[in-house]
Every structure is written in C-alpha cells, then in structure tokens.
Amino acid sequence: MPPHHPAAATPAVDGDDQLVLPGFDPAPPTPVRSSYRGTPLAAPPSAATIARFRAKVVVTPGCHFFVGAVSNPDGYGRINFVDGGAQRTVGAHRFALILVHGDLGPDAVGEHDCDETLCVRVGDGHLKLGTQSANLAHAVATGRHLGSTPAYRDPRGRYGRAVAIRDALLGGYDPDRLRAALAGVDADSIAAPTLF
C-alpha cells in the first residue's frame, strides 16, 4: 500500500466551491447580476447605455425592432450593461419597459401583443406590462403556445425567425427586406414584377 500524504490528497475547496491551489489566494468572485426578471436595478441605466440601446432600434411603421444580440432559442433581443459595478444582461423588451416605467417588480413581464420577440415599441398593440398568467393566456389564444408547449409556426423557429428579421434590418428599414424576413423567403424573390 502506498504511503498516505494528507497535504497532497486533494486541493481545498472554499465555501463557494472555488478550487484553492496551494500558494494562491482565491480571487474574489466577479459580481454578476442575474438577468432573471425582477432583480432590482442598482441604479437607472446610464445615458450611454440608453443611447447604445436606441442606436440598435429600427423604427418601422409597425414594430420598433431591436437589432442587437438575439438569444437562442427564444429569439428575444438581449442587451448587456453595467449596473452598480456589475455586468447585467436583460431582454431588450424588458429594457424598453424599464425606460418607460422605471424598475419593474418581480411579477412584471413584458407582453408582446404584436407577437414579435424583437419588438421594443412600448404601447398598445405592441409591448405592455403584464403578468405571466396573462402573457401565457395570450400566447395560447394566439397559437404561440399549446398548453405548456411552445408552438412554432415558423419552420426556422423563434431564434431563426428573429435573426432573419434582425439581419434584414441591420442596414435600416427596408420594407421589402422586412417583408421577406417575416415571410421566410429571400428578399430578391419579392422584387417588383416586370412586364416581360
């Protein structure tokens, strides 16, 4: 049987399950604020963060589309910013609601009456404050959910559809490119008809 060396058995692990190697002090954890809805903001978003958000919004006659990062698989826009010295990620639609209503409570959700995950237009027919139960009832009524199962009518899925819309709008609002992205076809296929 080999001799037992207690000091070399296994490195110590501190209370945060951080591996502590001999001769190294554990680094303090980087503060990260959860993107879970309801986590209070440490401070209102900075003017620079608001400007960066607005620069990523393309206004159309209907929805105002966020053309920044898109999360997979749900297809919602995401924005990262520093909040109270910590990095934070929230949904773009939730950020738009924060700009209009201030910090949101833990039970507040953003309801998309327009059913566009990238829409950040706060107002009737688009994005409004609601509850989870009302949001799910709307999703079931419009066919976006079948009970507890999301119903994807678009073969690209929510993420694929959202990325197509975002990519169509990266150069600004073009009705033909947006119509093609919404329909799931190539923009060149919706060119104006010719006589011959």
TrEMBL record:
Residues 1-39 are annotated as: Disordered. SUPFAM superfamilies: His-Me finger endonucleases. This is HNH endonuclease. Residues 1-12 have a biased composition (Low complexity).
